[in-house]
Amino acid sequence: MSTVLTTCPYCGCGCGFYLHTEHNKLVGVTPSQEHPVSRGTLCVKGWNAHEMVHHPERLKYPMIRENGVLRRASWEEALDFTARKLQEIRDKYTTESIGFFTSAKVTNEENYVMMKLARGVFLNSNIDHCARL
Prior knowledge:
The protein is of the alpha+beta class. Helix content is 28%, strand content 26%. The protein has helices spanning 44-47, 75-93, 108-121; strands spanning 2-7, 16-22, 25-31, 63-66, 69-72, 100-102, 127-129. The protein has a three-stranded antiparallel sheet, with no helix packed on it. The chain has a two-stranded antiparallel ribbon with strand order 4-5. A hairpin with an 8-residue loop joins strand 1 (2-7) and strand 2. The model has no long low-confidence stretch (mean pLDDT 91).
């Protein structure tokens, strides 16, 4: 069994824990005793964070919907598609027609980047966070 120090994906607190792997499969979690946020503790979501990784319905690569059917895409293609669609919406309906929603399952830094995209690139403040709803 081996361990990897990482950040919990369930909220923006940034708790640190060790993922335990055995035969290339995640099998458990233990909190980092030295981490300044979690300080050796985890919530119930953190303790079970490894379980989602091997879920059979988990998306493992980008998908693009065409004619009602999802197909696998490369990251470059998916990002280009998303950028193009956002530009089309902005050009047709104005920048205020676009809204950005972030998640408690990403880090504070990732939420900050999304805020900078909304305000700095699209010049609007239509941004919200699921933890506030």
